[in-house]
Amino acid sequence: MSDARKYPAPVTNPETAAFWDAARQGKFMIKRCTACGEAHYFPRSICPFCYSDKTVWEEASGEGTIYTYSLMRKSPTGPYAIGYVTLKEGPSVQTNFVDCDLEKLKIGQEVKVVFKPTDGAPLPFFTPA
Amino acid sequence: MTIKGKAYIAGIYEHPTRHAPDKSTAQLHAEVAKGAIEDAGISKDDVDGYFCAGDAPGGAWPMVDYLGLNTKKLRHVDSTETGGCSYIIHLGHAAEAIAAGKCSIALITLAGKPRSGVMPPRAAGAELDFESAYGATTHNAYGMCAMRHMHDYGTTSEQLAWIKVAASHHAQYNPHAMLRDVVTVEDVLNSPMISDPLHRMDCCVVSDGGGALIVTTPEIAKSLKKPLVKLIGHGEAMKGPRGGKDLDLTYSAGIWSGPRAFEEAGITPKDIKYASIYDSFTITVLMQLEDLGFCKKGEGGKFVADGNLISGVGKLPFNTDGGGLCSNHPVNRGGMTKIIEAVRQLRGEAHPKVQVKNCDLAIAHGTGGLLGVRHAASTAILERV
User: Which of A64, B211, B235, B348 is 20 to 30 A from B272 via CA?
Assistant: First the structure.
């Protein structure tokens, strides 16, 4: 069902352009602060934890576990499952779960990133590992 | 510095409509403003402070002009926008302005018609590209909270259903309520699943309408004819995923706004006789009751079960107008009606079947935005004088 959905192209901006450039190469990027060591998502130039501007791009493993989810039963494009994935690197990210039986999702389940095309840069989604 | 006792709610008005295809949104604002002004027994030309949120067409200055407020006198405006709890935040801000001498009679309005028209989309923040494609709605954002709360604390759909059951017991006495039938736990569980684990009856109504308040100084309130209701504590807070660190969707910003309000009021949750708790969904109520300290975190399910929220039956009568779950959720924003029913209870003007005896302390609490994404919360504690 979710494959039938048409996803909006990211608008992008100077702060996040590198994320979308990497996504075109199938890489899922997070930001890490070299001052406090914390990783965060979505990417910011100033660390939201210590306010250092020494943040750097880091390719994430793309692996994580489902923190929570909800299966939306009705929508114009059919059912879809929104949720949060807690990445191995620490941050939790909002996403949709795709390419799987949405009825069988479970909190704690291991998932991995998968990119879906748009008219612009591809968007990250997650699917059971 | 405190706002404790510095401001009184002298006028309240809830629009009786729940469906208004034949009215404009600005018109509904004017009708609720007129209603609250008449309830207080003042003139619209006395208003010197105006508060509105994102539902007011064009914002504060077009509304001030449209409403015909006295611009020679009007000297304070505030258009803080925090979704459904905006009006609880406005109440606190009005008290701050009154305490500081910046205005003496504040008007707060809410109105709109999501049931008969299309609501404009929420403005996106910096998260736009990283979230908008995933289709977060109110239903699934609150569903995500409920799912994790069940996982962490064993909360059940039956327990959530008791919140709707209690609201329906109250709504049967409200002639304006959209849904007046008393429902059972089974009814809720048998209603269609909307966004797991929330059923249709876990969700509030969609209604046109609105409400308004008049907030004023103690001196002016005492010169008017209505029973005296004063604000004795107020809190506001915000919460979001904050870079995705230590994500925990089982609590709301109410864990910060609540204690701030109780501390200012100098009371504890045990002292509260009546609670207006924002009920966009059943899970919203359960989490907020925990966050405000009416029970421990994780024990909300047990707390709400078996009619504990039903007036005359349980220990904490809540939303005695039927709340958003059964009566009214004007403009998809429940904060205003939460304050209004709390004032009715303190005045002794609630329906006799749901009026709490000797109701001298009440709380009105709400959230705005999406509990499972980013949101605001605000808490007001009110006392009958």
Answer: B211
Which of A8, A48, A75 comes nearest B132 by C-beta?
A8
Note the pLDDT tens digit of each residue in B349-376: 999 999 999 999 999 999 999 999 999 9
State how far residue A86 is from chain B, nearest Cα, in angstroms. Answer: 8
What is the value of pTM for the model shown?
Answer: 0.97
Q: Distance between CA atoms of B210 and B112, rounded to whole angstroms?
A: 6
Q: Please give the average per-residue pLDDT across B41-55, as a whole number.
A: 97
Do the Cβ atoms of B205 and B179 come closer than 8 Å?
yes
Report cis status (omega within 30 of 0) of the bond before B197: yes
- Residue A35 in tokens: 């001052």
Using CB atoms, pick whichever of A40, A95, A118 lies closest to residue B243: A40
B135 to A72: CB separation less than 8 angstroms, yes or no: yes
> Are residues A111 and A64 in contact, defined by beta-carbon separation less than 8 angstroms?
yes
The structure tokens listed for A103 are 């009825």
Provide, as residue numbers in chain A, all residues whose Cβ is less than 8 Å from the Cβ of B148. 67-68, 107
Which ipTM value was assigned to this complex?
Answer: 0.96
